[in-house]
Amino acid sequence: MQTQRLRIAIQKKGRLAKECQELLKRCGVKINYTGERLVVHAENMPLDLLLVRDDDIPGLIMDGVVDLGVIGENELEEVRLERIKLGEPSQYQLLRRLDFGGCRLSIALDKDQSYNGPQDLANQRIATTYPNILKAYMDKQGVSFSTCMLNGSVEVAPRAGLADAICDLVSTGATLEANGLKEAEVIFRSKAVLIQREGSFSEEKTALIERLLTRMQGVIQAKE
Ligand code: ATP
Ligand code: ZN
Q1: How many CA atoms lie within 13 Å of 186's alpha carbon, on the beta-carbon side?
Q2: Residues 175-214: tens digit of each pLDDT
Q3: Candidate of 11, 50, 53, 54 to mutate for ligand 1, largest count of ligand atoms within 8 Å of Cβ
């Protein structure tokens, strides 16, 4: 269902939410976020925001349900690989990398365990929320392993006896350390990105996207 208004999906709450809102504000988009609404309207341009869980954003773009989205590359890549596996649409266009949401997806294991390279992970069970990115990495290394899918509390899996190692997002490493783990291998580096659906856009939407991108360029440069 196409609408006249440009639709942008952003995370409702979480690590990307505040910075997305701030970026849009600096780009001149006036929005009142009060209330618990899924859709909020810009007051000064034909633009609506969809406030959703970050996990839903890649699919909304790949299914062409929204025009633009802001998402961490880790989540985007995981969904892309999953959709390729399932034979579902997995296309999108990268408009620009943003200057927030930086983190890395790393394999970590017990701090007292020796580690000399990916071959040491052979036949280990690795707990993760990112099974597809992990598999792509391990396949490339030619190392076989088994997985344990967890959507939360991944870092406690080794201590709880659920897995030998984990593959999880790291920014400072404090969470790993607090759980007696050490970072063994960085397998994916991520930042937030602005993406666009495939397909055609009205002249009005194209012009608005251009305008937003130009302003974004200015906002991001001014911070550097
Ligand atoms: P939601 O409720 O929307 O599903 P979530 O719990 O999946 O939220 P957040 O923890 O808010 O997600 O993280 C969103 C994104 O922020 C991550 O996918 C990642 O791209 C980025 N990020 C940056 N630093 C970190 C970090 N230290 N740990 C986890 N994610 C981080
Ligand atoms: Zn999420």
Answers
A1: 9
A2: 999 999 999 999 999 999 999 999 999 999 999 999 999 9
A3: 54
Closest CA to 77 of 63, 99, 57, 95: 57
Residues 81 and 109 in one domain: no
Domain span holding position 56:
6-101+191-223
Q: Which of 155, 169, 183 to mutate to test the pocket of ligand 1 (most atoms within 8 A of CB)?
A: 169
* Ligand 1 centre distance from Cα of residue 154 (Å): 13
| Residue nearest atom 27 in ligand 1 by C-alpha distance | 171
Looking at the fold, whether 24 and 80 belong to one and the same domain comes out as yes
Under 8 Å CB-to-CB from 131, ≥6 apart: which residues?
Answer: 78, 147, 149
Judge if 21 and 70 occupy the same domain.
yes
CA dihedral (113, 118, 123, 127) positive or negative: positive
8 Å CB contact between 44 and 50 = no
ipTM: 0.96
Q: Is 190 in the pocket of ligand 1 (CB under 6 A)?
A: yes
Separation of CA 203 and ligand 2 centre (Å):
33
Q: What is the pLDDT of residues 131-145, one digit of tens each?
A: 999 999 999 999 999
User: In this structure, which residues have their CB less than 5 angstroms from ion ligand 2?
Assistant: 54-55
> Is residue 196 located within the same domain as residue 97?
yes
pTM of the model: 0.96
For residue 34, what is the domain's CATH number? 3.40.190.10
